[in-house]
Amino acid sequence: MTQTSLSFASFPFPVLVADIGGTNARFALVRDAHSAAIQSASTATADHPDISAAIRKSLDDAGLEAPKTAIIAVAGPVTGDKIPLTNAHWVIEPRKMIEDLDLQEVIVVNDFEAQALALPGLSGPDIEQIGGGSVREASTKFVLGPGTGLGAAALIHAANTWIPVPGEGGHVELGPVSPEEFLIWSHIEQVGGRLGAEQILSGTGMPRLARAVSAAMGLERSFANAADITKAAEAGDPVGVTTLQVFARALGRMAGDFALSLLARGGVYLTGGVTPRIAGFLTDGAFRASFEAKAPHDRLMASIPTFIIHHPNPALEGLAAFARHPDQFAVEMTGRRWSSGIAKAS
Fold it and tell me: In angstroms, rounded to a whole number, what is the distance separating the alpha carbons of residues 52 and 20?
C-alpha cells in the first residue's frame, strides 16, 4: 500500500464519508458523482471497538453497499498512520481500514476543513443570515464553530479553485472592549498564562465566563455546564442573560477579526453545537454590531454577510461535495491519503 500526495483524480465510488467526533460518528454513502449522500443513523463511538466495526454496522443497518473509498473528518491534525481521537478510544488507522473493509483509498482531513468544503453549496433553509451584507461570488469564506471547543477554518478562492485552510484559530487571544467587559475579564481565570478565545467561546468555556460574570455582578451562581447557563438565560436569570450577551458580542468581534484579516467577502458562517442554542442572542443585533465595529473599516465590514448554519451535518455535506467533484477543491493530500495500490475505477 502506498501513501499518495496531492491529486484531483476522481475517487473510486461508492464513497463513504464520515464525520468522527469524540462522542458520535456519522456516516453517509455517495454512490456516484451525481447522487446525493445517503446518510445512515448516527452511532456512539463507545458502542464499537473501532471505526471499521462502526462502518460495517452502520452500512448493514441502513442496507447500503460496501464502499471503495472512505473520506473521513476528524477533530485535530492528521500527523501519521495512527490518528487518535481526543475524546474517544478509537485510533484511526487508514492502512488497517483498507484491509478491514477492502477499500481502495482512505483520505483523512480535519473536521473544520470538512465544514469549510460545505460552504459553497449551502443555501435556502440551510443558512440564516444575520444582519446585512451580501455574498461576493468566488470570494473567501470563513467558518467558525463554538461547540465543545472552538473550531475555525477558511475557504480561499484562487485560480478558479476552492482551497480549504484548516487551523487553530479558536486559540487566538480574546480581550475586552467595554467597561463592563473589562470588569468581567478581570475575574476570568487564565489557562496556561493566557486567555484564548476557546477558553470563553465554547461549551466548555462558557461556565468560565459565567463564573466571571457572577463575580463581577456580585451574585452567587453555580452552573455545571453550558446547558445550565442557556436554561437560566431563558428563565430570565441576570447572570445567564449577561453571560450570553457577552458571549455573543465577543464571538462577533472574533468573527469580524477573521473576516477583516482574510477579507472574507464570501461570508462568515457560524456552526457548532452551541450556536443553535444561543441563536436569539446572535440575531438580536449585538453580534452583528460587534462584527462591524472595526474602524476605520466599518463600511467594509457592513458589506460582509454573516450566517448561522442550520444544515444538520455540514461536515458530511462538505465531504460529499469533495467526493463528487474533487477537481473543484485543492485539498492537500500529502500524508493524508492512503491507497491499496489497486487501479481506480474510471
Answer: 12
